[in-house]
């Protein structure tokens, strides 16, 4: 596969940084489990300060490499190792492939117990639900979501809303949902009101875009707010698999810095896969110290950082609030109908086949 610098986009923008700010590390060496080897390359931030797009400066991910971020990443890594060891152990018992909790078809809803709640920021929580059996994995195919169901005491009908777990598909025993609360939003309010011990009806999988390793040379992910969760599922899958060499460019728009979800996880990946993963953050309401892009995700930014439409084997994924979707790609018509390709991506010359709306 051609290297980072060979393509346009993040990689083109990165070139001047490469010369002026830091030398890029070489591709990190992977252990059989796909983890970069300790002491290998990739210790520097991919992001640093990014050079401007006119007056705008695009990127600020280097910001995230604080000691707090590193400590949290280290804790997460340790947690991941324990989890993976458990998963591997389950797989090693002869004839004991982990059972998949979500079978689809006529399985219907599973009633899952909420085990743990973590407040992530001013409007988001991580909710951990136990799978029906301790040795089960979610087994969700990538990319796919889960459907939640809740009927309020006064409601005539239940509300149904999709969510994408942020835990790995082979995590044993539980799934984690990252949920942002919307004012008066029935499902997100219910989820935020839940306490450990309560149960939620969840079914799946809700198939989205079917991923296979190296299906595309380069994918671009344009996300707004909680639109990051389906993107993160793809990102995790790609970088957990040492055989998958796909390059990934993420453009992630949020209102304020506090709203950026999964920032330590993304920074960790960007740090460990500097040849293949770039993240560009855009804030509508940035702090004074912000060195990334400001405002909304716009045409100029996307033209600069996305892989060009003339590259044949690329795909651009879009997920975010309806206003953002309309401006970037047009909204989906329905869960099964991608609708017309409109907006910035159409203006930049992408074909409907090159774009997927979550
Ligand atoms: C494939 C997929 C995966 C998703 N995964 C997640 C996830 O992991 N975590 C998560 O928190 N949400 C996720 N969502 C969004 C989620 O399904 C709900 O739409 C959201 O939680 C709001 O539901 P609600 O019933 O509380 O509010 P609703 O009554 O549906 O909406 C309340 C208000 O918020 C607006 N709104 C709804 N959804 C969004 C949005 N995504 N962004 C901005 N404004 C919105 C509505 O226009 C309305 O004004 C996902 C959506 C899709 C399509």
Detailed description of the structure:
May mediate the reduction of outer membrane cytochrome b5. GO terms for molecular function: cytochrome-b5 reductase activity, acting on NADH. It catalyses: 2 Fe(III)-[cytochrome b5] + NADH = 2 Fe(II)-[cytochrome b5] + NAD(+) + H(+). Helix content is 24%, strand content 24%. It has helices at 10-20, 67-92, 186-193, 228-240, 263-272, 299-305, 322-328, 343-347; strands at residues 52-53, 56-57, 99-100, 110-119, 124-130, 136-137, 144-150, 159-163, 174-180, 199-207, 218-224, 247-254, 277-283, 293-294, 314-319, 355-357. The chain is globular and about 50 Å long. Residues 1-71 have low confidence and may be disordered. Residues 145, 159, 161-164, 177-180, 182, 185-189, 225-226, 229-230, 321-322, 358 line the site of flavin-adenine dinucleotide (FAD).
The low-confidence parts are: 1-71
* Largest pleated sheet: 6 strands, antiparallel
N/C terminus separation:
27 Å
- The strand line-up of the biggest sheet is 8-7-10-4-5-9
- CATH fold group of the largest domain: Rossmann fold
Judged by helices, strands and strand pairing, the structural class is alpha/beta
Supply the number of structural domains: 2
Which distinct ligands sit in these coordinates? flavin-adenine dinucleotide
C-alpha-based Rg, rounded? 20 Å
Strand content: 15-25%
pLDDT averaged residue by residue: 82
Task: Give the strand tally.
Answer: 16
Could you name the CATH class of the largest domain?
Alpha Beta
The CATH level-2 architecture of the largest domain is identified as 3-Layer(aba) Sandwich
What oligomeric state do these chains adopt?
A: single chain
Q: What is the helix fraction of residues, given as a range? A: 10-25%
């Amino acid at each position: 596969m051609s290297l980072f610098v060979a393509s346009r986009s993040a990689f083109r923008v990165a070139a001047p940084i490469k010369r002026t700010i830091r030398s890029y590390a070489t591709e990190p060496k992977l252990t059989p489990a796909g983890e970069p080897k300790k002491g290998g390359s990739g210790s520097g931030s991919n992001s640093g300060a990014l050079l401007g797009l006119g007056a705008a400066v695009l990127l600020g991910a280097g910001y995230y490499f604080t000691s707090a971020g590193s400590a949290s990443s280290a804790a997460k890594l340790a947690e991941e190792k324990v989890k993976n060891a458990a998963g591997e152990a389950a797989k090693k018992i002869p004839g004991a492939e982990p059972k998949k909790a979500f079978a689809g078809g006529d399985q219907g809803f599973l009633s899952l117990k909420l085990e743990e709640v973590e407040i992530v920021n001013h409007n988001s929580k991580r909710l951990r639900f136990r799978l029906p059996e301790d040795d089960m994995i979610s087994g969700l195919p990538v990319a796919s979501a889960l459907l939640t169901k809740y009927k309020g005491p006064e409601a005539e009908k239940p509300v149904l809303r999709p969510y994408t777990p942020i835990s790995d598909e082979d995590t044993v025993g539980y799934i984690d949902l990252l949920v942002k609360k919307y004012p008066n939003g029935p499902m997100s309010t219910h989820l935020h009101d839940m306490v450990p011990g309560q149960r939620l009806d969840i079914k799946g999988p809700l198939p989205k875009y079917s991923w296979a390793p190296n299906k595309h040379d380069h994918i671009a992910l344009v996300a707004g707010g909680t639109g990051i969760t389906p993107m993160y599922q793809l990102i995790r899958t790609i970088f957990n698999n040492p055989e998958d060499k796909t390059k990934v460019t993420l453009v992630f728009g949020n209102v304020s810095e506090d709203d950026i979800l999964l920032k330590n996880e993304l920074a960790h990946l960007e740090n460990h896969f500097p040849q293949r993963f770039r993240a560009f953050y855009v804030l509508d309401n940035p702090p004074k110290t912000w060195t990334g892009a400001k405002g909304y995700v716009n045409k100029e930014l996307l033209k600069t950082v996305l892989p060009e439409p003339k590259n044949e084997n690329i795909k651009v994924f879009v997920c975010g609030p309806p206003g953002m979707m309309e401006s970037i790609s047009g909204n989906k018509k329905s869960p099964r109908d991608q609708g017309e390709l409109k907006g910035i991506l159409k203006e930049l010359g992408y074909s409907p086949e090159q774009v997927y709306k979550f």
